[in-house]
Amino acid sequence: MALLTCEHLAIGYGTHVIQQDLNITIESGDYFIITGENGTGKSTLMKTILGFQKPLAGTITITKEISSHSIGYLPQQNASLKDFPATVREIVLSGRQGNLGLFPFYTKQDKTIVLQNMQKLGIEHLADKSFYELSGGQQQRVLLARALCAAKDMLLLDEPVKGFDAKITQTMYEDIEQLNKNGMTIIMITHDLAAAERYGTQVLRLTRDRSE
Where are the alpha helices (DSSP H) in the chain? Predict the structure, then answer.
């Protein structure tokens, strides 16, 4: 089943077109990878899919079976988050905010989902630790767990291993691969062509010569 379809999509800012005439179909269970050089619109495409900015032309259709509250998003690492004064549990729990609706309190189900996602990523023992006390790799796993708390159908990841050493990178890739094997549809941006070939069910390579 197609979860997301882009037809003749153009992306960019104002009147500046970065990419145009993109035609994409993402099926349930896909591991869709977006790669390309800096400046080719990878993050812009992801933000447009998420609705953070409008397409310049064309259409994006998301199946009615999923909603914005069932899509998780892990943006590129933000240096300002590294010193965030909250516990791991509080940060992961914040991923459930989109599901609160009119009821302003987290439910028992929310807390169960938080624990399950921390367990999936092996960080449940860090639940009461301050986020700023963690290593970079641990922080990224916490942010991935938070994204998972919002993700029921689809998870979007923007350079999730950027800046990490080979060991942490491989561990993160293994975690994401397992999520995909368990049924999560993944859309991931990466510069890592080897990872794209290894993990991707579809690979979209953006190039500069398509932008004008």
Answer: 42-50, 88-93, 108-120, 136-150, 166-181, 193-199
Taking the whole predicted model, whether its pTM rises above 0.90 is answered as no
Could you tell me which of 34, 21, 67 has the C-alpha nearest to residue 186? 34
Under DSSP, is residue 144 helix (H, G, I), strand (E, B) or coil?
A: helix
Give me the residue spans of the domains in the chain.
31-52+69-203
Highest CATH level, class, for 31-52+69-203: alpha beta
Tell me the backbone φ, ψ of residue 188, rounded to 5 degrees: -130, 135
The Cα-based distances of 124 to 14, 89, 93 in angstroms read 44, 8, 12
The CA-based angle 112-118-120, given to 5 degrees, is: 100
The tokens describing 54, both together, are 């409008």
CA distances from 162 to 24, 157, 168, 186 (A): 25, 11, 10, 17
Name the amino acid, one letter, at 190: T
Tell me the per-residue pLDDT of 51-62, one tens digit each, with 9 for 90 and over: 999 999 999 999
Of how many residues is the chain composed? Answer: 212
The pair of structure tokens assigned to 87 is 């516990």
